[in-house]
Amino acid sequence: MKKRLQFGFIIIAAIVLFDALASALSRTLQIDYAKLFWVSFLLYLAAGYFACKYFDFLTGLGGGFVAGLSDSTVGWLVSSAIGPYTSTAPQEYGLVTILFTVVIVSVLGAFFAAIGALARKIIGRGVRQP
Fold this sequence. Notes:
mainly alpha; 4 helices
């Protein structure tokens, strides 16, 4: 259990670090931050893949959910504080919109993690352990 928690904290740190770096780079280089969404999806996929590799399939799903949850909460907060470049005007969000976003992004995290975990299961079948 302790190793799974450590892994979860690594996922959270990676997501928040990405959000901070992407926000700073988008602001500096004038790259629309919204166009970097695919990197988040790759991070969710990687979370599922490695969680499945080191633990099991369900941990892979949970890892993706944690990635999405941290991306839509702490990551969003960090990104907003930095103020990334976006092609649209800044908006104010209500509680319902924020909660809806958190749920959708968390589920998307689990979905992409499931793809990563399935990929690990398929790849893992072909690898023989000594």
